[in-house]
Design goal:
Order of helices and strands: EEHEEHEEHEEHE
Low-confidence stretches: none
Shape: elongated
Strand order of the largest sheet: 3-4-2-1-5
Number of helices: 4
């Protein structure tokens, strides 16, 4: 009988205070339905309370979905001056905020960070700013 190894779908989840944030489009509606209570439609992301995350993680692992948990947000954060073109960067963000005339973005992947830098953003690590949501 043939067998196959399926590569799991990987999602980056960011630990922010007492919750885990992630942005992901689930092609399978049944998976989205399982997480619907955590979905923030205004921010286009999921926010799972920290005490519920282990259950969500285990549940989705059975469906070949794995989370990469990130607690150090700085490598995933970029900044741009306010009132500059940023729509493409915003589209790849899990969170964004404004401070002192600048826009900050927590991006969903290292690839998104590289693309944002190509679009004129600066990694927060290369500035005098610190990450603070």
């Amino acid at each position: 009988m043939p067998t196959f190894d399926a590569d799991p779908e990987r999602i980056t989840a960011f630990r922010v205070d007492d919750r885990y944030l992630f942005a992901h489009y689930f092609e399978r509606e049944d998976l989205f339905d399982r997480l619907r209570e955590y979905y923030d439609g205004e921010q286009y992301r999921f926010a799972v309370p920290a005490d519920e995350f282990p259950t969500v993680r285990a549940d989705l692992a059975e469906e070949y979905v794995e989370f990469e948990v990130v607690e150090d947000l700085e490598p995933y954060c970029v900044v741009k001056e306010q009132y500059t073109e940023h729509a493409d960067i915003l589209r790849d963000s899990v969170a964004h905020w404004e401070r002192r005339g600048h826009l900050f973005f927590l991006l969903e992947s290292e690839l998104a960070v590289r693309e944002a830098v190509e679009r004129g953003a600066t990694p927060v690590a290369e500035t005098d700013f610190v990450v603070g949501l």
